[in-house]
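Weekend entry, working from home. Most of the wet-lab plans are on hold until the incubator is repaired, so I used the time to fold the two sequences that have been sitting in the queue since the last round of cloning. Logging both here for the record. First:
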Amino acid sequence: MGVVVRQSIKGTIVSYLGVFIGYINLMFITPYCLPPDIIGFSKVFTDAAVLFTFIAQMGLTSALVRFFPYFSSDRSHYGLFGIVVFVPIVGFLLLSGVTFVFYQPIIQLFEVNSPLFARHFGYVLILTFFMMYLNLFEVYSNCLYRVVVPKIVREIVLRLLNIVVIILFYLKIIDFKVFVWSIVLMYAISALLNLYYLSRMVPLSLKIDLKQIPPKVRRDFVYYILFVLFVGIGSNIVSKIDVFMISSSINLKTTGIFSIAFYITTIMEIPSRVFMQIVNPLVAKAWKENDMTTLATLYKKSSINQFLVGGGILLLVWANIDNIFALMPNGHIYQAGKYVVLLLGIAKLLDMVTGVNWYIIVNSRFYYFQIFFVVYLTFVSVSLNAWLIPRYGINGAGIASVVALGSYNFLLMLFLKYKIDIWPLGYPTLKATVVLAILFLLNYFIPFILHPLLDAVIRTGILAGIFAMIVLQWRVSEDVNQLATNLWMKARTFLKK
């Protein structure tokens, strides 16, 4: 876990710096400079590109992680870079053809309630091309256990460019068409930066040399990317379906309100994203070596550590939710998404507490079972969103996320328990749940203190201090206690100098 901890800490620091930039952007700059419908457009525009990107990648990002140990013995990785470049081009061309065939039905779906998106749908494919290579070059770097620089590109550079584009649009230096093109350009620049960084680590060659790779591995590689493509389409539809349904059945303004609420909860996922990027290759390696002890350890530790971090962040976010909207420009508009924040936060927490269950399955010989789980998740998510959004609006989308993700992850846990007898939850989970429940209740007994900013600082300090104290005293997580001890020793050494 040493590599995991070091890279996770560095990556988390970068990510939280990016979150700070993103927070300033989406909590202050964006609500001040852009009306809700333009915010909604930006959300559905990029989400559509994310979905298309996954399809065009043809499952290659997951396959890189799973099969990289078979390529890593050669300095040039047997021309793996050529696969990374050429396979997505094939996927992109196929996607473009299908999109052309179904262009009119897609447009008709959005033209009544979200005509702005319908008119600019064609730009989604262009954005998809650059987003595709941004992802692939980043994953390639992750396979080399180098996550920090790609994180800087995604979390900092991309967000700074976004701020520049928003301000230029607000000042009317650029019009809306240039605004859309600028979003595309942001991803193009980021992809090129990742490519440059990758070229500094490994020799890049478009020549593919797979002679040293066993035929069975090559065959499994092809089968795997096709499988991941099928499964991933469902997963990506699930993650974006709420935005698409809100845009098509309500309007872009409501999508904008939902997107602000959604972003507030993404702060919970940041440590998890960094952690997963490092742990995923280790899970693949453990399966390759049939090391069940390491697999079980990764499963349990990922569960409790993510639960503590995610639960602690959700506690502080919900405790300060009224302060957040009070300090936000036009916060009275976006406060309509208050309970969406809580619901999406609970959904994300349910996903985090179940640990690396998905990664364990997808890297195992049982990976094909994911088809059944994803079909279930897609069906439940689409059905619930279609039923609840017309009745409860954006809160309905939040409820759908809680039910769909909660039941899906529970099924994954049961499957792993049945197949390889590992389980992520235990007494530490119960202790963490008790701590969080107590502090959620305590928050309601803390009176409002004079001003939203002052209240946020004091409230956060009280709750975070008590949370840290109880977690360390009860020894809820060995890793957290060890990290606290190491930081304390380093602080003492520094102060003695």
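Second, folded right after the first finished:
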Amino acid sequence: MKVSKFLKLHGMLLLTMHPDFTLAEAARRFAQPVGSRKFSLAVVTDVDDHVLGVLSLGDIAHALGKYEEKAAHMLVRDVMTTAITSCGVDDDLEDVLKRMAGTGIRHMPVLEGGKLSGLVARRDALEFLYQQASLDVAHLTDWLFRSDARY
């Protein structure tokens, strides 16, 4: 299954941040759910939706532990992770999950034309693939054992 199909069927809720937000502003954004979802990672983008990095709750916690009160006034750009791995909308979702497992990451920004198009979260993708496989098995079972089968 292509990443684009996963994003279309699963939805594309994600949290974005501007690199010039303070960590206090970023923490407030993390505290506000998007729909019914809470996030532990935000994609940091410029005004044109080019991905600059990612910011996790762990990044904020690390800054608080290291810089204490000063951390609230630090900028997202100062603590975000810039060495990120991304994928494209035409990539195979299973291959993306293998890359994520191989690199030990849980979230991968999806790019289309160099711009942010979505986010693959490992947990969401695995749950989605499991549900799709369960539906396929149920459909095949119904087809194989329906009452009008001739043999």
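Plan for Monday: verify the second prediction. The chain has a mean pLDDT of 88.
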